[in-house]
Amino acid sequence: MADDNRQFIERYVREVWHRHDLGALERFLAPDYRRHLSPTAPPLDRARQLERLDGMRTAFRDVSLTLEDVLADGDRVAFRSTLRGTHTGEFLGLAATGRSFTVGLVDIVRIANGQIVDHWGGPDLYDLVRQLGANFGLDPDVT
Q1: Domain 2-131, what fold?
Q2: Which end of the chain is more exposed for a tag (fewer CB within 10 A), N or C?
Q3: What are the DSSP E strand ranges found in the chain?
Q4: CA-based end-to-end distance of the chain
C-alpha cells in the first residue's frame, strides 16, 4: 500500500503540476477532500482547493513543483518539495513584480480509496512574499 501511495503522489505532481492539468484534481481529490491550512481556520473543500491552485497559476504562470523526498507509511504520504515561479499576477494583494521565487513545502496527505482525503501543510508563504519584495517590518534586508 505504501509504495502504491508514493507512486500516486508522483502521478499527482506529474499531472497537476508538471502538465498543469487542474482538471485532474477531480481524479486525485476525494469528494469529501479537506485541505488543512491552519489549525484555526476551517479546511478547504475540493472546490476551494481548485480555486487556490488556479489562483497560484494566475499569479505565477510558470509555477513548477519539484519533488525532493516522498515518504509513505500506510495511508499517509509525506513529501518535501520545492516550488518555483515568477510573479506575473496579483498574489495576496501584491501586484505583479516580475520577481522569481524558490520556496520549500512539506505536505502530508491521507489517501483512501485511491484519492486524497486529507491534506496538511503547504508552501512557506512568508518566505514567498518576502522574496517578492513584501516587508512586514521583520526583515531589514528586504527592499
Answers
A1: Nuclear Transport Factor 2; Chain: A, (3.10.450)
A2: C
A3: 29-36, 64-73, 76-86, 100-112, 115-123
A4: 48
- What confidence score (pLDDT) does residue 54 get? 92
pLDDT at residue 2, as a whole number: 78
Task: Give residue 137's pLDDT.
Answer: 63
With beta carbons less than 8 A apart as the criterion, state whether 81 and 104 touch. Answer: yes
CA distance linking residue 109 with residue 116, whole number of Å? 6
Give the sheet arrangement for strand 64-73, strand by strand. 29-36, 115-123, 100-112, 76-86, 64-73
Give the CA distances from residue 23 to residues 26, 56, 74, 131, 135, in Å, rounded to whole numbers and listed in that order: 6, 15, 27, 30, 35
CA distance 67 to 81: 4
Tell me: pLDDT of 86 over 90: yes
What pTM, to 2 d.p., does this model score? 0.87
Residues 65-77: what's their mean pLDDT?
96
Q: Could you tell me the residue ranges of all domains in the chain?
A: 2-131
